[in-house]
Design goal:
With 674 residues, the chain is mainly beta. The chain folds into 4 domains: 147 residues, Jelly Rolls, CATH 2.60.120; 283 residues, 5 Propeller (Tachylectin-2, Chain A), CATH 2.115.10.20; 90 residues, Sandwich (Immunoglobulin-like), CATH 2.60.40; 117 residues, OmpA-like domain (60s Ribosomal Protein L30, Chain: A), CATH 3.30.1330.60. The chain has 5 helices and 42 strands. It has a 5-stranded antiparallel β-sheet, with no helix packed on it. A 4-stranded antiparallel β-sheet has the order 1-9-4-7, with no helix packed on it. Helix 1 packs antiparallel against helix 2. The longest helix has 21 residues. The protein is elongated and about 100 Å long. Its main location: membrane. It is found in: Cell outer membrane. Keywords: Cell outer membrane, Membrane, Signal.
Length: 674
């Protein structure tokens, strides 16, 4: 019990890090020199000293700290920093992350930039790896607007770095701690242990890049130097997970996914029919830097990977990782580009109408650092972004963090939070991935691994899971023969409309699957060549927890005499003016008629029985006439469309109450000619 209480106390202490009364430098006023790498000029620059510590409480080299250009400069190095809110000071806290002990003087500056000596050290200092150097002074009678630090870097041989410079009016020593979320503290306090996935997945070789399918049933991962690979390089493998959560023996995916070069996967779609692959696959079997996509064919086998076209894509780094959002419309990647903050940064790209991807945009300084960011993963909620970085205070040299998306630009993010010691260790922890249920997290670590790296999982407390979603699955059937069909699925959030995502129903691989955020109502549309599209709705507005929903869709073969109801046609109340929310569905009707240029239809309008009978007949006729006008405006010949208004004469439900009367107010079309 004492051990548990101590762990809880420790984690609470870590969580309250920046509740301390401390103000970190906001800008650099001037400096003596800074180390620069021409390829990554922002690393080790003077600007890295601003903000809270990026390395401490750990010590050692960090590109997110200021490093003077000369390591052993007896003539001195210095830096002057300013603060947003000038204040009285009792303490200066200097995060010396590498080879501490070179500070000789500390000066303060008031609002008029008058200089005051606060600290002087004329003695040589014994060598220290790093420290938070807390200098206590009598409380200043003036407000400190800036601090200047003088250093003699010849006192401590080697590279000297300063991580951050803070001021405080408190007598309590300022400490650097990890920005660990309260939820992560709860997870760690339960003492849930990381679980090695065992011999069916891990080997004496190297297992990396795990990708768990959204349904939690398949784990794709990369093996390096394994004797079962096509060559000693990297191949993609898959292990199936049974109902008990046990892993079957992993199988090599084989050709054409695996080649004689390095192969790895990044994302798998919810339906399991689409996968992102590292590199561009060339017809001659060679690979080039970039990204490819593979899709399952009608026989269930993976097709030859096709290149993904990202506008103005380049990456000056040897490595890259990608993550595709569950809706298939947003791509997050790591790359080193001209506007990167350090080595690899996080970038975002959006699917364009022509199926190319927009030029990558840097996702900003909130999630990117002067160090490297790797292995991004967009959770099923489309809001939670998990990734690993060495540029934020953590437990090891590469920790997993989470940040929440704040708007639809994908450029504004919450402050990243460390997932805590239940996930992160003093070693290398990366490639975090979660199924749609959010019950387990899978990740890579070299701590207690059977090989170079192993794949682990940990059961997640609900407090640390992403926002809950719904996994919707099912088949698309021929409505007459009841045989499963190969079909495309699209869905949109109502009432705003616009396609929110898509999927493919493959009869060989058990239909389709999509992941939907809760709190919305959705419309599903299934399409197959030679069939009328079918539409269904799912209401998730009242759901609060993860849920799996089966939704089968039935398509009628295109045939003369078939009557089709249009479920999302809306008019102004008691008028025939179309509302904009109707356009999405009417555009689908126009597309259908263009795909079938000889098809002729009759639009039929219906009302309930409230009001004057003849007025309702006129209203129903005028409404379908408005629908016809819209279709004609989209390029459909007028002679291919007839209209008929039935008023209240053909109800499909009772008119005794408003709920059932809504079913009678409708627009349908009848196929007159195929």
């Amino acid at each position: 019990m004492k051990k548990i209480l101590f762990l809880a106390f420790l984690l609470t202490s870590l969580f309250t890090t920046y509740a301390q009364e401390v103000q970190w430098a906001s800008r650099v006023v001037a400096f003596s020199s800074e180390y620069q790498d021409p390829k990554m000029p922002k690393q080790y620059g003077a600007a890295q000293v601003t903000g809270k510590p990026s390395k401490l409480p750990l010590f050692g080299n960090s590109p997110c700290a200021w490093r003077p250009s000369q390591d052993d400069n007896a003539s001195g190095e210095w830096i002057k920093v300013a603060y947003i809110q000038p204040q009285s000071v009792k303490q200066i806290a200097i995060a010396e992350n590498m080879n501490a002990g070179t500070i000789t003087r500390i000066y303060a500056y008031d609002l008029q930039d008058k200089e005051y000596l606060l600290f002087e050290n004329k003695k040589d200092t014994s060598r220290m790896v790093g420290r938070m150097f807390n200098v206590f002074v009598k409380e200043t009678t003036y407000k400190v607007a800036a601090i200047k630090i003088m250093m003699n870097t010849s006192r401590i041989k080697g590279v000297n770095q300063i991580d951050a410079i803070g001021i405080s009016s408190s007598s309590e020593p300022v400490e650097a701690r990890i920005n660990i979320s309260k939820n992560a503290s709860t997870q760690a306090a339960t003492q849930v242990k990381r679980e090695n996935l065992g011999r069916n997945v891990n080997s004496p070789y190297d297992e990396i890049c795990p990708v768990i399918s959204p349904d939690g049933k398949s784990l794709y991962f990369t093996r390096a130097m394994h004797p079962g690979n096509l060559t000693p390089d990297q191949d993609i493998w898959v292990a199936q997970i049974d109902a008990r959560g046990m892993f079957g023996p992993a199988k090599n995916l084989g050709a054409p996914i695996n080649t004689i070069q390095h192969n790895s996967s990044f994302s798998i779609s919810p339906d399991g029919n689409t996968m992102l692959l590292n590199n561009r696959y060339m017809p001659d079997g060679k690979l080039k830097k970039g990204l490819s996509i593979t899709r399952r064919m009608s026989n269930g086998e993976w097709g030859f990977p096709e290149p993904v076209q990202i506008n103005n894509y380049y990456n000056d780094n040897e490595y890259a990782e990608f993550s595709l959002a569950q809706n298939g419309k947003v791509l997050v990647m790591t790359a080193q580009r001209n506007d990167s903050y350090g080595s690899k940064d996080l970038y975002v790209s959006f699917l364009q109408p022509n199926n190319t991807w927009s030029e990558p945009k840097n996702m900003g300084a909130m999630v990117n650092t002067a160090d490297g960011e790797i292995s991004p993963f967009i959770a099923s909620d489309g809001v939670s972004l998990y990734y690993s970085t060495g540029g934020l205070s953590g437990f090891g040299n590469m920790d997993v963090f989470v940040s929440k998306r704040l708007d639809d630009s994908w450029l504004n993010w919450s402050e990243p939070q460390n997932l805590g010691p239940a996930i992160n260790s003093e070693a290398w922890d990366t490639y975090y991935t979660i199924p749609a249920s959010g019950d387990y997290a899978y990740f890579v670590s070299d701590k207690e691994s059977s090989g170079e790296n192993d794949i682990f999982r940990i059961k997640l407390d609900k407090a640390i899971q992403p926002d809950p979603v719904a996994l919707v699955y099912g088949n698309v059937y021929d409505a007459q023969t009841k045989q499963p069909l190969q079909a495309s699925i699209s869905y949109e959030a109502l009432p705003k409309g616009g396609e929110a995502g898509s999927a493919v129903a493959n009869p060989v691989t058990d239909g389709y699957k999509v992941v939907l955020p809760l709190k919305f109502k959705y419309s599903f549309t299934a399409r197959a060549e030679g069939f009328m599209s079918a539409e269904e709705e799912i209401d998730l507005t009242q759901e609060t927890a993860y849920k799996e929903i089966r939704k089968d869709l039935y398509l009628m073969p295109l045939a003369v005499g078939q009557l089709v109801r249009l479920n999302h046609i809306y008019f102004e109340q008691s008028k025939h003016a179309l509302l904009e929310t109707s356009f999405e569905e009417l555009n689908r009707v126009a597309a259908l008629m263009k795909e079938n240029p000889t098809m002729e239809i009759q639009l039929e309008g219906h009302t309930d029985n409230v009001g004057d009978f003849m007025l309702n007949v006129d209203l129903s006729r005028n409404r379908v006439a408005a629908v016809k006008d819209y279709l004609v405006s989209k390029g459909i010949e007028e002679k291919r469309i007839q209209v008929k208004g039935y008023g209240s004469t053909r109800p499909v439900a009772s008119n005794s109450n408003e709920k059932t009367r809504q079913q009678n107010r409708r627009v349908e079309f009848l196929i007159l000619k195929k």
